[in-house]
Amino acid sequence: MKLHRVSLIIFYDSRKRILLQDRRGISKVGEHWAYFGGHINEDETPEQALLRETKEELGFELIGYDYKFLDKFTEQKNQNRNFMVDRWVYVAPMPPLSELKLGEGNGMKLFTLKQAMKLKMVSEGDKDVIRKLEEMLK
Q1: Which of the two ends of the chain, N or C, has the fewest CB atoms closer than 10 A to its terminal CB?
Q2: Cα-Cα-Cα-Cα dihedral sign, residues 47, 52, 56, 61
Q3: pTM of the prediction?
Q4: What's the number of domains the chain is made of?
Q5: Which candidate, 129, 4, 113, 18, places its Cα nearest to that of 69?
Q6: Helix (H, G, I), strand (E, B), or coil: what is residue 9?
Q7: pLDDT tens-place values along the chain, 138 residues long
């Protein structure tokens, strides 16, 4: 079984909106919106990948910033039963947008959790992340 491991960050603001990356036109699997983050290299921990990916994709340094682990989500891809995805998801209060410099994607936008549930994302597993985040933000 092939295992794909990713580490993701979700920034949220005081109105409980989340920041998502616009992936239209550059998507590898057809999604329009996605969380920021990416592949965990073989020699990295999920947290090390989180720090690297946040720096690469948003030009933002998470070291010393108030972020926390939300949960690990495992999903078996329906189309390919020999493919699993492990997502380590971290959350953090939104820094000022002026501190974020988009390094990947077509843009970024804030969405309410209700709006995010209706977006074309990578998989149903992305909706599970939103549900868990909604519990945390209550």
Answers
A1: C
A2: positive
A3: 0.93
A4: 1
A5: 129
A6: strand
A7: 788 999 999 999 999 999 999 999 888 788 999 999 999 999 999 999 999 999 999 999 999 999 999 999 998 866 656 778 999 999 999 999 999 999 999 999 999 999 999 999 988 889 999 999 999 998
Nearest to 85 by CA among 121, 127, 40, 118: 40
- Rounded to whole angstroms, the Cα distance separating 104 from 35 reads 12
CATH number of residue 83's parent domain = 3.90.79.10
The answer for residues whose C-beta is within 8 angstroms of residue 130's C-beta and 6 or more apart is 18, 113, 116, 117
Range of the domain at 106: 2-137
- Extended strands (E) in the chain: 2-12, 18-22, 33-34, 36-39, 68-76, 83-93, 107-111
Q: Give the per-residue SS3 of 20-56.
A: EEECCCCCCCCCCEECEEEECCCCCCHHHHHHHHHHH
